[in-house]
Every structure is written in C-alpha cells, then in structure tokens.
Amino acid sequence: MNEERNCKIILTVDLIVIFTILTWFMFTWIGLGNQAMEGLRLLIWRSRKLERKDKVWKENINRRKLIAKYSCGKVLDIGFGWLSNPYLINPVGLDIEKRDKPSNYESVFTYDGNRFPFEDNYFDTVTAGELIEHINNVGNFLTECNRVLRTGGELIISTPNPYYISEIIYNLFPFKKELNKDHITLFSRRTLKRTLDFNGFKLVKIMNNKTTIPVVGLWLNVYLSTLMTNHYIYICEKEKKWVS
C-alpha cells in the first residue's frame, strides 16, 4: 500500500510539472513570453541561491554519505578539492590543483589532468563526485580510472541529471544566462552506461539522490521521480583491463 501511495504521489508531482511547462508555453504563445521567462529565471536562481546559502548543501551531504556507504578498501577520491568527503575512511585525494589535506584523508596528490600518479591495479574503489560533467576528455579519464582499479574494483560517479526540471526549462526557453557554465557534458543514463561499457566497466546500480525542494521556506529532503531528481549516483565495476 505504501509503495502504491508513493507511486501516486510521484505521478501527481510529474503531472504538476508537465502542467507548469505547458502553461509557460501558453504564455509564450500569447505574447507574455519575455516577462514570464524572466520571472521564471529569477525564481529558479533565487531558490538556488537560498539553497547554496551555507555552501554545503543538503543534497551534497546526501550524495557524499551514499558514496562513502558503497566505498570499500583502498579508496581514491578524484576532484576532492571542491568539496571533500568527510564520510570516507582514509581515502587518497587527487586533484588537478594543489589542495590542503582534509583531516580524514590519508594523503593527497596533484596530476596534470592526463595520467594519474599511481601504479596499475592499486585501488579497490575510485570515487568521482560531481566531476565527470566538467571533464573534456572523458575517455582518457575513464581509462585512467580503469588502470588504477583492480579487476572487480568499484568506480562510483555522481553527476547531474540532464532531465532535471531546471535543465528542461532552460533548454525549452532561450534564457541568456546559463544554468551552470562549468558543465561541459551532461550524461543521460543510457549515454553514460554506453560510455562506461566502452571503457571496461559494468554498470551495477543507479541511485536517485534525495532532492531538496522548497516548502514553506524549508528545504525538504525527499526521493522523487526522474523529473525532480537533481543528481544520479552510478555504481560501476571494473570488468576488464582497458588498453587505450
């Protein structure tokens, strides 16, 4: 019964979202598009500014906890400089810029963006939270992840959902201001799965991250459907050695 009720709630939310999108299409059609779109843009950015007030968002906390939960053995955390993961146990940090060592990290390294400074088959888990969407050469990145992981080791990636409602709205309407200028590629689940397959990884599990939504001035952490899920977490297993 609870599962059925949750499905009905998710369906209701999706219908509300679809109705909202269609309403904005109507505004554009009757000539109110510019004012309507500017108002919508301001609403999105103000809500995101509120969400980022303390710089450590609830969504990021949820993601880091889930990443740590599925990490085991000797862990390499790539891109830790922007937001390190305090829930990992003695990980090794890797970043393209020199960063201070977080208290729970065993050691930290820098690299040139091409080859990781580690031996082959060195780690049990490689984590990359909110990183792959910023990388220009994704193939080289995954090749290096494959190289430093032992066979059967895990690659854990979190990345934005390209079908999140904010992304859909920004693609439907010609806003001048981009939602995030630092993002190079947003991967759909199918595209990322194919890319992982090509680089010697098997996709084991995809998880919805809890999404923060504004309700009466509060940010509630809830699991919602694809349209309302801001990020996904991908758990992958190294199946074979990939030779570039």
How would you concisely characterize the structure shown here?
The chain has helices spanning 2-29, 33-51, 58-69, 138-148, 165-172, 189-198; strands at residues 75-78, 92-95, 107-110, 123-129, 149-160, 201-208, 211-215, 218-222, 231-238.
Please list the strands of the largest sheet in the order they lie side by side: 3-2-1-4-5-9-6
For the sheet with most strands, the description reads: 7 strands, mixed
The CATH architecture classification is: 3-Layer(aba) Sandwich
* Integer average pLDDT: 78
In terms of DSSP E residues, the strand content is 15-25%
- CATH C-level name: Alpha Beta
Provide a count of the helices.
Answer: 6
**Unreliably modeled segments:** 27-33, 50-56, 214-220
Q: Indicate how many domains the architecture comprises.
A: 1
- Estimate the helix proportion, in percent: 25-40%
CATH fold-level label: Rossmann fold
Q: What Rg do the Cα atoms give?
A: 20 Å
Task: Please identify the structural class as seen in this structure.
Answer: alpha/beta
Elements, N to C (H/E): HHHEEEEHEHHEEEE
The CATH superfamily is identified as: Vaccinia Virus protein VP39
Distance between the termini: 51 Å
Number of strands: 9
